[in-house]
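Predict structure. Chain length: 74.
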Amino acid sequence: MIISSPNPERWIAQLFSSRAAQKGAVVRRSVAWVEREVGHAAFQIEIKRRGYHLIRTANQYIVICHNGPIDILF
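Prediction complete.
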């Protein structure tokens, strides 16, 4: 069962207005928290819309808040 935030647009706006996101840095959120607040599909759509990069590792989403190239070194 998916229980989303009463205002997922507000949650996304707050996430991407954070200092890290504004500086083009990294934002990390738990997969469970994203599902509870906005749902995976809506979150991924917003990441793509912004041109950012999304990595999932274990139970965390890592958002690289810029649209430049990235290299995973190891």
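Summary: The chain has a mean pLDDT of 86.
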